[in-house]
């Protein structure tokens, strides 16, 4: 193997950047803590929903249990796959010779990065086709794990919708008094009501989980609506808020679904472990034939 040359021009010509993925013996606390907190919330909602179903026997009990189990399984399964999948440039060869228009230099990672790749200061690494940093799961949403994020969002939204529906009746039964000041503050500040001794522990648990279900449902619905629009247009959250650029990655709704969810996009919502290969490598992206052109600079 030839000796390393300190010539700057030759180094630029043959430079190949390779970022090695180091296996960690333990989870990064920045990932472990939000995942544990999210897991506790998911578990508490799941247990309460199962309790509500079992405490109200009827003809639809088995159906509700099966539906709840299916939704929870998909939420947890997609969360696990999301965390296990690496959307960053770690372990990816970025060859200097293939650099073209749109490549930028990341001073934090000290390497050139391809288009749609942006640095995340929470993850401290550049992410391929970065969408945003998911605070609840402690990782960025990018090229390789967007499918699992979107499926978690869809199944979480449906599960919280079911939980909100089941909680509505039992919550009113616990209050016994309709919507007065007592019930209003219990719904708004359940911890304060518990500390001051205004409610029992069981009433607090139901109120807290009910709050979690309602807030979580609205949160998931808003994100589901946003990402459905982005998915349809083949755009990321960063690109959406940045506004029009020189590149237009909208290849039509069907091709956009394939680019983000994989070639078997129509099956990914059924099961987290269904194989659905994502076309491309997260480095090179096809632009629309009628890509819009703008004269203004797109540097941010």
TrEMBL record:
Keywords: Acyltransferase, Membrane, Transferase, Transmembrane, Transmembrane helix. It is a multi-pass membrane protein. The keyword Transferase applies. The DHHC domain is required for palmitoyltransferase activity. GO terms for biological process: protein targeting to membrane. It catalyses: L-cysteinyl-[protein] + hexadecanoyl-CoA = S-hexadecanoyl-L-cysteinyl-[protein] + CoA. Belongs to the DHHC palmitoyltransferase family. It comes from Xenopus laevis. This is Palmitoyltransferase.
